[in-house]
């Protein structure tokens, strides 16, 4: 199981400077509420309870602050999927871990994850290329698992490319409707999505598990 941390914990693990951590958290809040272009460095500094010039002490431009937010979130998800893939197991077991991580990790820090999705186009070309490289690796990890399951006949689907994108798109779509005030935790939603994906690819494990709704009710 991947390690599901909060955004505050992620920044604590990645950033030594308490001041930079405050700016990153303030940036997430500002970009989430008002969008990147409508958020000024003065707004961000005020949220962080710092002087208006504080942003430029640590970041050359507002885009660099946004990039660090998106990079840390993307790398955290990539590391979670790498960790899940390294544990091995059958294709169905591996896919279950990958889907769970792909759903629950971003939802645990959903504001920053939404910012990463919505404001990706505000990055510079060089910054976008770095993030795309990470996102491509996420798709490759999922695709490799699906390919092994298909070749071993544990999964039953026709087109690998379409199935890979369907699985990835389903996992990413969680952020479109998820709310921390909702009924289910990110981990419970991850459980539900695991069953959906295993059913989608014809995973043999799905038939031996309790129905998703029943398991969610039990968790509640």
Describe the structure.
The radius of gyration is 19 Å and the shape is elongated. It has 220 residues and is an all-alpha fold. It has eleven helices and no strands. Helix 5 crosses helix 7. Mean pLDDT is 90; it is low at 205-220.
List keywords for this structure.
elongated; 220 residues; 11 helices; disordered C terminus
Gross morphology: elongated
Helix content: 55-70%
What is the string of helix and strand elements?
HHHHHHHHHHH
Name the average pLDDT: 90
- From the N-terminal CA to the C-terminal CA, the straight-line distance is 20 Å
Q: What Rg, in angstroms, do the CA atoms define? A: 19 Å
Largest sheet: none
Q: Which residues form runs of ≥5 with pLDDT under 50?
A: 205-220
Question: How many individual β-strands?
Answer: 0
Blueprint of the fold:
Elements: H1 7-14, H2 18-34, H3 41-47, H4 54-58, H5 62-86, H6 91-108, H7 110-118, H8 125-151, H9 160-172, H10 186-201, H11 212-219
Helix pairs in contact: 1-2, 2-3, 2-5, 2-7, 5-6, 5-7, 5-8, 6-8, 6-10, 8-9, 9-10, 10-11
In short:
The chain has 220 residues and is mainly α. The chain is built from 11 helices and no strands.
